[in-house]
Write a structure and sequence with these properties.
The structure is a single chain. 37% of the residues lie in helices and 15% in strands. The protein has helices spanning 10-18, 26-36, 51-63, 83-96, 114-122, 132-140, 157-162, 166-173, 191-200, 229-240, 255-267, 281-292, 303-306, 326-333, 354-364, 406-409, and strands at residues 41-44, 76-79, 105-108, 127-130, 151-154, 181-186, 205-208, 219-225, 247-251, 272-275, 298-301, 314-319, 343-349. The protein has a seven-stranded parallel β-sheet, with helices on both faces. The chain has a six-stranded parallel β-sheet with strand order 8-13-12-9-11-10, with helices on both faces. Bound molecules: adenosine monophosphate.
Length: 410
């Protein structure tokens, strides 16, 4: 299957070819024809699966034809949970729409100054990419007219619900034409997502993508037990010196610890910086840009700041602290192994975090192999491996680190 046979207009196929894509990913293959046929869709797919193009290409196709009614309101609205994701979706619209004339894409997100945002909106919009809170705010001030809306995309709907946007979403959707097409994307189609879909979608087709990437088979996972924070720092230092690390993202539990770890790494000579919600938008954008162009090698981030982050150079994800929610573990490790590449996800685990390992392993149904580095063995060998799918006792030296993916290793 190639893009030309999906029914997309030539300027869109040309832009996709110029982006270097030779074949649609599984989610694109299944979503694009159904979306072009005008159906509502409820899609489970992970970030990294190519889901952005799966909705953006049909959205652009819709814009190849003029709207019956003239006006300045958007014809396509993409709702996203975070500013970072909104930047990526906006960039995707520009990349795939580059051969089309006069496509105006505007991003409306919190943290952006109102005057600049208002000017952009006044100039007219084809594709609006927005976070729910700020969009509702702008709608209430009468700056956004959704009467011309033809397509609504709910991107990472599960994250939007997690972040408490349910009521905002309902209020926004209540002010849209019922004739619109709605495409919902979520990592999983859990009951709360299906309930949301029931109220916002019409007779949706359900598409579940069980790709290798969705199961993270292309990501080698492993964990190291650590005695304390000092031990974690030494392990981190050692791991980041590995030549196989092209770029890495290190996750911490708090903003403060992101700053501390980034500073520590910086003082050890790493091109490292922090990314978290206390930084102003300008600083966040500059840091992300530095990561994209490869000027930064290590990004130390909190979960919220790194949500949706798409940097293809990230070869390693390191959990300096384990996430509290197992879902966050899946989102974190999905920052590597993007666009068909392989990746490595390493967790540093102290005694207090041990129970979380079990929760994560249950959630992913994949045991995480324990690895020990010579010279950096944990002193405390009492971390007994919970019995269960993982099986292998923890803390037993196995010589060199030897991470392997559970599935491919069987
Ligand atoms: P997404 O899941 O939308 O965040 O996309 C993940 C990454 O895959 C992005 O960097 C895209 O540029 C890339 N990508 C999307 N579609 C394709 C494709 N058909 N072939 C190769 N790379 C792709």
């Amino acid at each position: 299957m190639n893009f030309d046979s999906l029914g997309l207009a030539a300027p869109i196929c040309d832009a996709v070819a110029a982006a270097g894509y030779t074949a649609p990913t599984p989610v694109q293959d299944r979503v694009i024809p159904e979306a072009l046929a005008g159906r509502d869709l409820m899609v489970s797919s992970q970030t990294g699966s190519g889901k952005t193009a799966a909705f953006m290409l049909p959205a652009l196709q819709l814009l190849t034809e003029a709207h019956a009614v003239a006006g300045r309101g958007p014809r396509v609205l993409v709702l996203v949970p975070t500013r970072e994701l909104s930047m990526q979706v906006t960039k995707a619209a520009e990349t795939y729409g580059r051969n089309m004339r006069r496509i105006k894409t505007v991003s409306v997100v919190g943290g952006m100054p109102y005057p600049a945002q208002n000017r952009l909106l006044q100039a007219g919009v084809d594709i609006l990419v927005a976070t729910p809170g700020r969009l509702l705010d702008q709608m209430q001030s009468g700056r956004i007219d959704l009467s011309r809306l033809q397509m609504l995309v709910l991107d990472e709907a599960d994250r939007m619900l997690d972040m408490g946007f349910k009521e905002d979403l309902e209020a926004i959707v209540a002010r849209m034409p019922a004739t619109r097409q709605t495409l919902l994307f979520s990592a999983t189609l859990e009951p709360n997502i299906v309930r949301l879909a029931r109220t916002m979608l019409k007779d949706p087709a359900r598409i579940e993508i069980d790709s290798q990437q969705a199961r993270h088979e292309n990501i080698v996972q492993r964990l190291h037990f650590a005695d304390d924070q000092g031990h974690k720092n030494r392990l981190l230092n050692h791991l980041l010196r590995d030549v196989d690390v092209n770029q890495a993202i290190v996750f911490t539990a708090t903003k403060r610890s992101a700053d501390e770890v980034a500073q520590d790494l910086h003082s050890k000579g790493f091109a490292a910086a922090a990314l978290h919600g206390d930084m102003n938008q300008g600083a966040r954008t500059r840091t992300l840009q530095a990561m994209h162009v490869g000027r930064l090698r290590v990004l130390v981030a909190t979960d919220v700041a790194a949500r949706g982050l798409d940097v293809q150079g990230i070869s390693h994800v390191i959990n300096y602290d384990l996430p509290r929610q197992a879902e966050d573990y899946v989102h974190r490790i999905g920052r590597t192994g993007r666009a068909g590449r392989n990746g490595t996800a390493i967790s540093l685990v102290n005694a207090r975090e041990h129970a979380q390992v079990r929760t994560i392993e249950r959630f992913t149904a994949q045991p995480i192999p324990v690895t020990v580095i010579e010279g950096l063995e944990p002193k405390v060998r009492a971390f007994s491996r919970p019995s269960g799918p993982a099986g292998r006792p923890a803390g037993k030296p196995r010589g060199k680190p030897q991470g392997r993916s559970f599935r491919s290793g069987r």
